[in-house]
C-alpha cells in the first residue's frame, strides 16, 4: 500500500499551530517569526514533506510545464533542438511535454487542444508544413498561454521568433558550387508554404544572379521533407535533356535522398555531379562521399526559444515589442562538392 503523503494539516497538528501559519512559514512569509519558521521547516524536513504539485499550480496559476511541438522527433535537427529546450527548461524548474505534428495540421490542432486542457504554461513550436492558418496558436495566446516560434516562423503571429539565416546559408552553398565551376545548379526545395523553403530559394536565386547564371524553373523542384522525396526529385532532374551538374538540397533528408539516387543511377560525386545540402554534419560525414553541408545551431535555437518563452511566462507585463533572433549557419565543405582544390573545413 502506498504511504500517505505528509500534509500541511499534519504539520500544523504536530506543532499545535494553524494550517495558515504553516503555509506562510513554508513560503518564507515575513509575517511569521524566524523561530516558528525554523520549527516548521525542521519538522517538514524530518517528515519528508513535499508540496502537492496540483495545489501549487493552482496557487501560482502555473504548472511549471511547457509544451514543444515539432514536425518529427526522429529528425536529428529537431531532436537536437528539443535537447536545447529541455536544457533551459530544466535549469529554470520547468518540465516539457513533447508533441509531433508529422507535418499534419490536424495533429497540430490536437496538440494545441491538449496543451490548453492541461494548463501548460507556454509553447515552443516549429510549425508544420501544412499550417497556413495559425488561428490555433492565436487562440492559445488569447487564453494566456504564450507561444514562441523557432525554425519555421510566420509573420502572421505576433511573438518572439528564433530562426537560422536560411537565406545566407543557401547563398553560400550555391556560391560554393559556382566557384567549383558548376553552371547548371539545381535546387530541391522543401514545401512551398514553409518559410525556410522560401528563404533558401531566395538565397539560391541571389547567388545565381550575382554570377550571371540564369534561374531556370525546371531546375527548382519542391519536395516533401523526406528521403523518398529527395530521391524522386533527383530522378526527375537527371532525366532532363539538359541535366544539372550540381544539386543543392534544402534539408538533410532531401539531401540523403539525392545522394542515394545518384549512387543508384551510377553517377560519380563530385566528378560528374556535385552535391551540397542543409545537413546534419555527423550523418553526412558517414556517407561515401561525405556531403558538404550547411549546418544549423539546432541546440542553441532550442535554448534561445525556451529562454524567450520562459521570460514571457514569468513576466507580469506584455513586452512592448517582440524579438526575432537570426542565428548564423555554417558551411562545411566535404568531398561531395569539391571539383576544384579548395580548403576543407
TrEMBL record:
* Alphabetized UniProt keyword annotations: DNA-binding, Transcription, Transcription regulation
Return the PROSITE patterns for the record.
HTH_LACI_2
Q: Which organism is it from?
A: Dyadobacter psychrotolerans
Q: Name one Pfam family in it.
A: LacI
What residues does the HTH lacI-type domain cover?
A: 6-60
What is the name of this protein? LacI family transcriptional regulator
A single GO molecular-function term is: DNA-binding transcription factor activity
Gene3D superfamilies in alphabetical order: 3.40.50.2300, lambda repressor-like DNA-binding domains
Amino acid at each position: 500500500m502506498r504511504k500517505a503523503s505528509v500534509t500541511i494539516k499534519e504539520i500544523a497538528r504536530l506543532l499545535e499551530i494553524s494550517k495558515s501559519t504553516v503555509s506562510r512559514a513554508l513560503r518564507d512569509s515575513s509575517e511569521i517569526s524566524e523561530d516558528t519558521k525554523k520549527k516548521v521547516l525542521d519538522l517538514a524536513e524530518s517528515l519528508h514533506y513535499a508540496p502537492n504539485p496540483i495545489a501549487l499550480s493552482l496557487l501560482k496559476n502555473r504548472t511549471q510545464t511547457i509544451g514543444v511541438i515539432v514536425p518529427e522527433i526522429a529528425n536529428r535537427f529537431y531532436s537536437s533542438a528539443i535537447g536545447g529546450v529541455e536544457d533551459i527548461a530544466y535549469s529554470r524548474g520547468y518540465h516539457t511535454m513533447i508533441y509531433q505534428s508529422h507535418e499534419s495540421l490536424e495533429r497540430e490542432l490536437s496538440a494545441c487542444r491538449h496543451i490548453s486542457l492541461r494548463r501548460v504554461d507556454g509553447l515552443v513550436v516549429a510549425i508544420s508544413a501544412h499550417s497556413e492558418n495559425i488561428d490555433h496558436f492565436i487562440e492559445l495566446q488569447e487564453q494566456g498561454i504564450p507561444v514562441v516560434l523557432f525554425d519555421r516562423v510566420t509573420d502572421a503571429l505576433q511573438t518572439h521568433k528564433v530562426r537560422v539565416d536560411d537565406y545566407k546559408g543557401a547563398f553560400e552553398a550555391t556560391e560554393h558550387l559556382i566557384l567549383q565551376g558548376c553552371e547548371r545548379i539545381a535546387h530541391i526545395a522543401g514545401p512551398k508554404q514553409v518559410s525556410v523553403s522560401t528563404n533558401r530559394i531566395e538565397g539560391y536565386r541571389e547567388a545565381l544572379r550575382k554570377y550571371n547564371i540564369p534561374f531556370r524553373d525546371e531546375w527548382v523542384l519542391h519536395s516533401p521533407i523526406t528521403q523518398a522525396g529527395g530521391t524522386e526529385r533527383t530522378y526527375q532532374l537527371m532525366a532532363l535533356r539538359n541535366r544539372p551538374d550540381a544539386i543543392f538540397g534544402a534539408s538533410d533528408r532531401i539531401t540523403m535522398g539525392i545522394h542515394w539516387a545518384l549512387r543508384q543511377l551510377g553517377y560519380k560525386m563530385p566528378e560528374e555531379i556535385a552535391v551540397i545540402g542543409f545537413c546534419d554534419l555527423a550523418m553526412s560525414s558517414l556517407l561515401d562521399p561525405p556531403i558538404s553541408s550547411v549546418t544549423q545551431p539546432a541546440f542553441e535555437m532550442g535554448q534561445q526559444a525556451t529562454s524567450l518563452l520562459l521570460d514571457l511566462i514569468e513576466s507580469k507585463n506584455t513586452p512592448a515589442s517582440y524579438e526575432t533572433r537570426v542565428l548564423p549557419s555554417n558551411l562545411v565543405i566535404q568531398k561531395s562538392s569539391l571539383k576544384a582544390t579548395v580548403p576543407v573545413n
